[in-house]
Amino acid sequence: MKKGYLGIDIGSISTKGVVIDEDNNILVKEYIWTEGDPIGAVKRLLTALGNKLGDDDVKIVSVGTTGSARKLIGVMTNASVVKNEITAHAIGTTTLHPDVRTIFEIGGQDSKIIIIENGFVTDYAMNTLCAAGTGSFLSSQAHRLGVSVEDFGEIALTSKKPTTIAARCTVFAESDLVHKAQIGHKKEDIIAGLCKAVVTNYLNNIGKGKKISPPIVFQGGVSKNVGVKKAFEEAVGHDVIVDENGHLMGAFGVAVLARKSKIERPFSFDIIDADFKTRGFECGKCANHCEIICVYKGDELIDSWGNKCDNGAIKVK
User: Fold this and answer.
1) Residue 213 CA: distances (Å) to CA of 23, 35, 118
2) Which of these, 118, 298, 105, 117, lies nearest to 206 by C-alpha position?
3) Cα–Cα dist 209/41, whole Å
4) What is the pTM of this model?
């Protein structure tokens, strides 16, 4: 039986999972929507991955988690490694593209840039405050224009004269889009303009003051939009690489970290049937008033966090 390493990237919009072997080959992969329920999403993810593995002679010996709910999912899966998104994306990308120097990443609700020199992260920035320029922004505009977001990029490539869209803010972009449509701009020009606006917003905010050097790898769900890829290439004057598994790079990276950790812990797909729940409360034992999160498996407390001092510490068996 060969060893497998599971990586899970749990975000606010999407949940990604991969299982790799000892040579970093992806054996199975899955991408689903989180739908505001990280515990339920991971159970659905594990069900899909387990079905894809089927009767393959693979035993999961180590798990890594990343993303906004990484600690919660790490507790559920008995993870060996729990890492932030910057580390996971950097490790995943440098594993597949060792010479990469710049990583553009645009997800459903946030975006980031990672600068790499000689295989090490030297600078990064994240945007989690504004939806303008993210996947959810593009999805809402596609719906407004009556087109599928999957067709967005291909339609953008047919434009001869992209419309200028003010995208420094979601509200301004939407009102500007409606105005441009009302005065007769072609749909493909508006769509191309939105792709350019996403890139302009990204470079003027996330990329401001950063040294952007090739090779450049573009990842995250928005990397599948060929219109945004083209707009990035025109803006920075360099080719932009989009890996076929770029939308899974966080999950892949944390799976690689789980393998490299050499920490093997018991894992079973049977946790799909377990009853996990979280409870939160405010600790009033000092002036910090910390929000304590407790995680239960059935009636058993399996972990807690959030305390800034020992007053709020909760003992776990």
Assistant:
1) 29, 36, 12
2) 105
3) 37
4) 0.86
